[in-house]
Design goal:
5-stranded antiparallel sheet; 4 domains; elongated; 5-stranded parallel sheet; Rossmann fold
């Protein structure tokens, strides 16, 4: 028997097969016509010949490609299925819908439905589609449409047809069009996930011809496949943001996307009302995440003092375990106001595992500590609380997560009209985000000798003032990984130039570590006297002629300037 792991078994258990009953005459004597069904209890007396929907991965389960499976009636409640038949003792050639049960290297059959109809090659099992959230469907204008097939296993590949609200649709090049059935659907079997129906093949061929012709005349067709480009996804994501009136800068949206690619844990900061939670949901909807099963949002209260408090109220542990077992799909765990409690205490168990998985250079790992297991298909996003009693985002947290700060967009830049195109939901999964779009390399090699010298100079300066802020080896690896994984444009160039990249990663990894009220802080970032800013030694270093050959460090200096103002006027730099 072909070796298959547990995940494949789980997929097979979801499949519905179509076939016909046959009698294995080698196992029966000459008076078989007089035998009743109960006597047909030997393995192999009755068999089912499978003639529809056999994935290639299952072909080796059958002997000599005969696609015949023996039926045992006294198992899996199979006798109940035949109780309503007029002639229950004569099943030969009857059409049957069934499932495969695989256990202990044996294949068995679980009957679902037996039909009186004569078998025909026109019978097809078709999955029933459900519209995904936030999707506008306009079949008449051939707009790109995306559907969810909740119980259609991935080992079948992409279905040729699917059923949606009374119509059969043909799927080709990510465009759907109704098959002309003249309203005569009349399925002989239907449940919440599939239906069994006859389709006129001539109608199908004509529809395929029509779609091929219309595709040739369109310039904006999007083909979602393994080779779907990252910059194409970003164009759709940015357009979707406009459709839902989420006015976050392109830079911040790209940073958020890059962060999710390169780390399990993302800290999402920004003032209240800037759109942090909305950005997370926009991203989840755009990639086609199932918000009812693969998305868990947990508000963090000040009362949480341990991992036990954190995991019990919303069954966080169960969600993490589910993500680990379902390694092929993405899962989002969103911690709202995650620093309302002491993160380093209630997330202590996870922080260690996160740092281990993030540090791998192979882009995939799983870790186990006690009963907690995680892999990189789990994405944890913590939104930052700005409350007075909120805990600070410490250097330890910054080193174990990607930090993204969302700037408030200028009101004057808000467009007066929204885009005409529809909100588009894609089927972007773990493979695209964590494999095809992610660069795996020696990340430190990204930086030049001069860039590394600047980082050394920054560290030497900060150590002199006993600051917790520094660029340690872990930070350097993280900065290199982030830099190498910033998206590539259509002409194979980084969306940002190198000087902008160096400034960006320094801003995201160093500036959040500089906070507090200690006197030495003013020596680092400077101090304000009225409206005059006396620049600190770190600013002077970043504005030196040597540093200017690398970058103008605009983002980093701007952030440190803001901290100097906070220190002067509030007595505390955030």
């Amino acid at each position: 028997m072909l070796y298959m792991n547990e995940s494949v078994f789980n997929e097979i258990s979801k499949l519905n097969f179509l076939g016909t009953f046959v009698i294995n005459k080698k196992n029966l004597n000459n008076n078989m016509k007089t035998r009743n069904l109960i006597q047909f209890d030997k393995v192999g007396d009755y068999q089912i010949r499978v003639y529809k929907n056999v994935p290639k991965i299952l072909e080796n389960l059958f002997i000599e490609n005969q696609y015949q499976i023996p039926v045992v009636f006294n198992k899996h409640n199979n006798l109940k299925v035949i109780e309503g038949l007029n002639d229950r003792n004569n099943l030969e050639n009857k059409l049957v819908l069934f499932k495969l049960v695989i256990s202990k290297n044996k294949i068995q059959v679980k009957l679902i439905k037996i039909f009186e109809e004569t078998p025909s090659d026109n019978y097809m099992i078709i999955p029933i589609a459900r519209k995904k959230r936030s999707v506008n469907i306009d079949i008449s204008n051939l707009h790109i449409s995306y559907f969810n097939l909740p119980s259609y296993p991935i080992i079948f590949g992409t279905p040729s047809f699917f059923y949606y609200k009374g119509n059969i649709y043909i799927h080709k090049f990510s465009i759907t069009k109704r098959v002309n059935t003249n309203g005569n659907l009349n399925p002989i079997y239907q449940d919440s996930n599939i239906l069994l129906i006859k389709i006129n093949e001539e109608d199908i061929k004509q529809t395929e011809l029509l779609i091929d012709t219309e595709i040739a005349n369109r310039n904006s067709t999007i083909n979602i496949s393994d080779s779907f480009k990252e910059y194409e996804f970003l164009e759709i994501l940015l357009n979707n943001a406009k459709k839902v009136n989420l006015f976050i800068t392109e830079k911040d949206i790209i940073n958020f996307h890059t962060s999710l690619k390169t780390s399990i844990f993302t800290i999402l900061d920004g003032h209240s009302g800037v759109g942090k939670s909305e950005l997370i949901r926009l991203y989840a909807n755009t990639i086609g995440l199932n918000l009812s099963t693969n998305f868990l949002e947990v508000p963090i209260s000040q009362n949480i003092t341990s991992f036990k408090d954190f995991e019990e109220d919303y069954d966080v542990r169960g969600f993490i375990e589910k993500a680990y077992k379902d390694g092929g799909n993405l899962y989002f765990l969103v911690l709202e106001d995650f620093n309302s409690a002491n993160v380093e205490v209630y997330l202590s168990e996870l922080l260690y595992l996160i740092s281990r998985v993030n540090s791998t250079c192979t882009n995939f790992s799983n870790e186990d500590m006690g009963t907690i297991k995680i892999s990189d298909n789990l994405i944890i996003i913590g939104t930052v609380s700005k409350g007075i009693s909120a805990y600070p985002i410490t250097p330890k947290l910054i080193d174990r997560a990607n930090y993204v700060y969302i700037e408030k967009s200028m009101f004057k830049n808000i467009p007066t009209k929204s885009e005409k195109s529809s909100f588009i939901t894609l089927n972007i999964g773990h493979y695209n985000l964590k494999r095809e779009w992610t660069v795996s390399d020696e990340f430190i090699r990204f930086f030049s000798h001069d860039e590394l010298k600047i980082f050394d100079a920054i560290n030497d300066l900060l150590i002199d003032y006993s600051s917790n802020a520094n660029i340690n080896f872990r930070t350097l690896v993280k900065m290199g990984k982030y830099s190498m994984n910033l998206p590539i444009s259509g002409n194979n160039k980084f969306i940002l130039n190198r000087a902008e990249i160096i400034d960006l990663v320094l801003y995201l990894n160093l500036a959040p570590k500089i906070y507090g009220s200690h006197p030495a802080l003013s020596m680092i970032i400077g101090e304000y006297n009225g409206s005059k800013w006396t620049k600190g030694e770190l600013i002077q270093l970043l504005e030196s002629d040597y540093a200017k050959n690398i970058s103008n460090f605009h983002l980093t200096i701007q952030a440190l300037n803001k901290k100097a103002k906070e220190l002067e006027y509030e007595g505390y730099a955030r």
